[in-house]
Design a protein that fits this description.
alpha/beta; UDP N-Acetylglucosamine Acyltransferase, domain 1; 4 helices
Length: 262
């Protein structure tokens, strides 16, 4: 353990073999597992748990009060962060709210670039990337492997599907389906994230079937219910297509529309 003499660590914090930089503040109820590093001037407030190997850079704020005017400050809400995440300078993530799920959850291996933000009661999966100043509002779900471009924003209660890619500056007011690319204000769908899928090891056959499902679901003029039924019947044997169909069917806010339709 290496704690700089200017750092302030509350006696009620639980620290493993960690590194804490100058002028950092570790509050009560914080649990830092082995290998966690906290950079200079960062503020880490509890209740929260940070998993092994997570890097908290300079001027990061984690575990702060939710930006929810209905939140009861006496409620025992918390922030849970998994292993091997990276939080770059001025990024932030808030605890859950008393009026929501009471927890904000962040999985493993995520990369949060400078000024990015995760609001209260959000769920972030594994292996996602938030580029500079990307922000998600309260109650948002970001599924595994999604990429959020710089300066993009996601509306409350929206979902970003697995391996979806959101372009820089996009304003997402509805769900972004898995494996797709979204861009614009308000965000529209521009196709399948082919490069991202290949990089994550999907076969050419699987990508081809996803592309065909994309065309039927988002580009054709077939009514959505009928298109979903046809895609499920023709390509439901492919797990990724089944995932796409289920995501669209279960969407409480509706999904972003395609930029171009036939």
């Amino acid at each position: 353990m290496a704690i700089h003499p200017t750092a302030i660590v509350d006696p009620a914090a639980e620290l493993g073999d960690v590194t804490v930089g100058p002028y950092a503040i570790i509050g009560a109820g914080v649990v830092l597992h082995d290998g966690v590093s906290v950079g200079a001037h960062s503020v880490v407030e509890g209740p929260m748990v940070v998993g092994q190997g997570t890097e908290i850079g300079h001027h990061v704020v984690l575990g702060g009060l939710p930006q929810d005017q209905k939140h009861d400050r006496s409620a025992p809400t918390r922030l849970l962060i998994g292993k091997n995440n990276v939080f770059r300078e001025f990024s932030s993530a808030h605890r859950g709210s008393s009026g929501g799920g009471a927890e904000t959850r962040i999985g493993d291996g995520n990369y949060f670039m400078a000024n990015s933000h995760v609001a209260h009661d959000c769920t972030v999966g594994h292996g996602t990337m938030f580029a500079n100043s990307a922000a998600i509002a309260g109650h948002v779900e970001v599924h595994d492997g999604a990429i959020l471009g710089g300066l993009c924003a996601v509306h409350q209660h929206s979902r970003i599907g697995r391996f979806a890619m959101i372009g820089g500056g996009a304003m997402c007011a509805q769900d972004v389906p898995p494996f797709t690319i979204a861009q614009g204000d308000r965000a529209r769908l521009y196709g399948v994230n082919i490069i991202g899928l290949r990089r994550n090891g999907m076969s050419a056959e699987t990508v081809s079937r996803i592309k065909e499902a994309w065309r039927q679901l988002f580009v054709s003029d077939v009514p959505k219910k009928l298109a979903l039924a046809r895609v499920a019947e023709a390509h439901g044997d492919v797990a990724e297509v089944a995932e796409l169909v289920a995501f669209v069917r279960e969407s409480p806010r509706g999904v972003c529309r395609a930029a171009v339709r036939h």
